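Suppose a classmate hands you a notebook page containing two proteins, each written out with its sequence and a corresponding row of structure tokens. How would you begin to make sense of it? This section walks through that situation. The first entry is reproduced here exactly as it would appear on such a page.
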Amino acid sequence: MILIWSAYLLADWVAAFSIGLISNSLGDSSEVAEVEDLMVFWAPFLLLHLGGPDTITAFALEDNELWLRHFLGLIIQVAAAAYVFLQSLPNKLWPATMLMFLAGIIKYAERTRALYLASLNSFRGSMLKEPDPGPDYAKLMEEYSSRKEANLPTRIQITPELRKESLVDYYGYNENALSEFEVVQNACHFFDKFKGLLVDLIFSFHERNESREFFRKRTAEDAFAVIEVELNFIYEVLYTKIVAIHCKKGYFFRIISVSSVFLALIFFLLLDKSKFQKPDVGITYTLLIGAIVLDIISFVMLFFSDWTIVARKKPPKESIFATIFEKFLTIRRHGFSNLRYIKFPSRIIIRSGLPEIKCRKISLRILCRRWSESVSQYNMISHCLNERRKKVDELYDYLGIKEFLDEQAHVSTKEFTGKLRAFIFDELRTKSEVASDSETAKDMCSSRGDWVLRDNNCNDLLPWTIHKEFDESLILWHIATEICYNTEERTNNESEKDKQDREFAKLLSDYMMYLLVMQPTMMLAVAGIGQIRYRDTCAEAKRIFHKWDLIPGGNSKKACERIFSINTEVKPVEVKGDRSKSVLFDGCILAKELKKLKREKWEIMSKVWVELLSFAASHCRANAHAQQVSKGGELISLVWLLMVHLGLGEQFRINEGHARAKLLVGK
């Protein structure tokens, strides 16, 4: 990520610096004319370089807002390259140079236009429809009043708005497992319907009912597959050139660009190069062939993109292309079936006097997956037990690398398994079935564990959710989950479901703490004073861990057992006051309450964590989800999009649509 970020920032600087060097060298009398001609011919390649690849135009959402700066850069760089070219005239390579100028300007303009189209104002403006004043109320009432004055028996008949064609009408309703083509087609359909989420637009009951009906009948695997492709569409619209080139004008200019590079290569092949130096000729061929190869790669990627598949409208019939597309989509969704890993040498060790090569396995799934497919983990107790020395911490903080090193040291990842996928989907689908109307859906979105607790008759635990701020509730449940996880005796009689629920609760607990601590911008709308509360809780935990000689490198199990053994008959706030926002021992009290639930506690706790996750997902700002798409994606973004499609959101504010009123005269 750091390497890509550095290359992205250095691209413009390198191009400007290189054109400056070429310009200065033209005035050097020691350079022969042929060498100067070649150097001028190289200048347009820098414009191609500034155009960048099709797969990345912006590194972050904020880059799109700087499209005007890039447009100014386009004008300046083209002017500089044109100045260099005019300065070199007469030039033997002027036809090839002009062709490369044309290709470079097109590529750079594509990038600038892509940034403009993805900017917030432009993106919102592209989705806004014509202003809707609704039916003419004044005209209707004037006619109604005039007929009443004429003593005519008049009444108003209301006809509901007609149902529009839906996805079911267009593709035909199918409750079976989705094919790879259907996954992409459905994802594109819902992306077109709901891309307004990214700019906080509102939606109608027609759209809610259609997506809710579709996703409720899907399996967890198919539902998440559609969501993953939909997030991929979001990424491509916001961070790539796809919108700029996937249209008739885009194809036209791309053909001109590729043809220009190809004609420039032919011209250079036919040119007498006897007066050129061989290294310079080799560099020129490398630049030309490299540009053509990159264009070929871009074409192949465009040909196999989801946009091309969607453009076919219907799944292709049996043919070689249909087989290739189907195989490609299968690999993207499921990976390679026979070859799952590749090995490469990582280090050499000496064993029994002989050298032995140790290999490291890399999953090939990384090459074809649509998002990270992992769940980040951060554990507060573990972090407190592995505290760095204070002076070292202060040094890292002074250098501005403390947060980066904390993430490297204390954040791990776990695979987003099919079982976890099914568990989350089943919980959200159950809520969707209950939320038949938009008001109930809003109540569901506002639940922070209380709906699960009421449903399981755990009313004694409700104060730990509804009477607490969200960030406080999250830290409390994280501490309680960690204590229960580390103090529970494992038995052979434990069912597979109990084991699974325990692992789900632990995984989601650590993930939510990761979001609160390591991704504060995502949780900004719901975090409150979460950072202050977290720091105070960590400070109290470190103090008692030092007292118990558990730092550094203490065991989490032993630490949780010691915390659990503390007498908590008196509430901490009554002893300590409320200046400190630490909730360490409040979490211990909650853990003791949860212990009373016996065997069903892990099922309840795992469901509470899904509800806390869904609350955070639905209340996060849309641009926070969009920002994470470029960094590999987050589980919370998938949950957010899935909730919307299941009708669990506050975006559906058009309940009835236009009423069609008619005046009827007569009895």
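The notebook's second entry, a different protein, reads as follows.
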Amino acid sequence: MDCHCTGKPIAVQGLVSLLVYILQPHRKSIVRWLGKCYTNLTWWMPRLKSVLCKMLCTCSREQVGVEEGGLSKDVMAFKEVSANGLSAKTTEVETKLDEGNIEEAESSLREALSLNYEEARALLGRLEYQRGNIEAALQVFEGIELHAVKQRLKSSISEKAHSKRGRSRQELSQSVSLHAASLLLEAIYLKALSLQKLGRLTEAAQECKSVLDTIETALPQGMPELLGDNKLQETVGKAVELLPELWKQAGLQHEAMAAYRRALLSQWHLDADCCARIQKEFAILLLYGGVEAGAPSLAAQIDGSFVPKNNTEEAILLLMILLRKCCLRKIAWDPTVMDHLTFALSLSGQSLVLAKQVEEVLPGIYARSDRWNDLALCYSGARQNLVALNLLRKSLSKSEKPNDLSALLLAAKICTEDFHLAAEGVEYARRAVENAKGEFEHLKGIAYRLLGLALERKTKASSSDSERTHLRSEALKFLEEAIIWEKQNPDWIFELGLEYAENRNLNLALCYVKEYLDLTSGSLLKGWRLLALILSAQKRYSEAETVLDAALDETGKWEQGVLLRTKAKLQIAQSSPMNAIETYRLLLALVQAQRKSFGAGKCTPKVESERVPEVGVWQDLACLYSGLSRWRDAEICLEKAKALKNYSAETSHAKGLEHLLSMPSP
């Protein structure tokens, strides 16, 4: 045995020799264990690898009876190749490849296995790829012609279809076997993998696409369910899954989306797990890829079927299909599917649909309290606060998780929106403050804010002046405490300024609203309006009107309604009724234009939040005309308001005020 080992310690050579001496008498009993360990040998034991190969060959010649299932697939594929019912050891071929004699290695395979040139090339390329010689494998694969592969696959499928008709052995031998065709397709697939590893992604994608094009050309009706060659089906499945990944890595998102759709719409007969992986990756690309896919081609659309209008809808459809497969136990549960579906449905404002999906998840996947919390979030997003609060009450009971911080914060938030629930919200917020510690200490500011808001709402349900004063003082204290934790949060600063304004502490309110405008760079409408209201409360009407004019110049047309109404009321306070009438005229024109453009309830959320109801404008004008003793104009305005809303307390009040003012003095 040649023990020359350049650059390796002599001790290693001695260890190998000793190991050979010990193992030789017992080679038959330990061959299975050696086969399993073969692929895990470390770099510093090359001689053991050589000994193992020789022992495997010796045991095979002595008919030891080693079962193929007992050895690693990589070992068997690496040490032996088979084709046309023949098999051959690769030791000699490896030696010739190591010496750079590719032609001689190819000739050896052709003679041993009765192969043609392309089949031998395919086997050699696979052998080089398995050995990690990517560039050498690519050089071998370059000699395979795709056109020849197509012809072989067509003839193989034809032979498979007519094999039951009793063709002669001579006729069968004239066409290449299905196994040979799958071997050639696998070579093209491995060529694509080699190009991918070398960074030639576009070329790799083209090669991978050629595999699928070949199958579609030979099998225009799709892959048969029982083709009789598992290797061919496995190669096709891998190519279908690899192609969109290659396009993504190459930065060609549109091609990747087309490849995903091709994978899902064509008849490839993929297994459930492979199909699920493709659907999931496609949904992720649609959600986060940043490229609009567009509608599927008309050829892929079925009459009466749902056609997604955008990326989000298509991703939701794919994720809901995956979730249904999980619920039917066709595939293993994947929590990331629910994560992506939650994002997509939340983005679309479909909280109730998300709640239904959460409810359909099989028991045992989520803890009971966690499922309740998720459902509460969904129903809260759909503005069904009482349903959400009932779920949270169950989740926060003593038998479940009474100190769950996220559930406490959500329950407190829901309670702050209804003064009837304010007392319960105060309790939840106090518990949240107590539990916001350790790794959750950063949430203490949110807990203080909710506590302050809950106390402020509680004042509206209080019947005692002293209690209201105490509650307001406590609310302001906790809101200021929240600002300490979140000093740069503009929304919290605005809330604190609004709270001080409602408590008539106008100087502090003015300071906070100015800080809010600085933090937002004056980009939000509500800051300018609050500033104008505070100035008007300080009897600084001209300054307030100047602020509103400046805000109107910087605000879009559809968002000016609230500012115009505030400006009209300021003009009335300054005893400028004619200016106010002109402002109301502009406001009325804007409101009617919004109604015609968007229709009832169809405007965007941003416009809806700043929208002034048309009935309110007519009521304001009726009161203004009544103060000017213009009874006929006031009557017309009230009729307009009544036509829009037949039963309205404000309209009835304005009509009573008109009659009262129009009565002659006694």
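A careful reader of the second entry would note: Strands lie at 80-83, 86-89.
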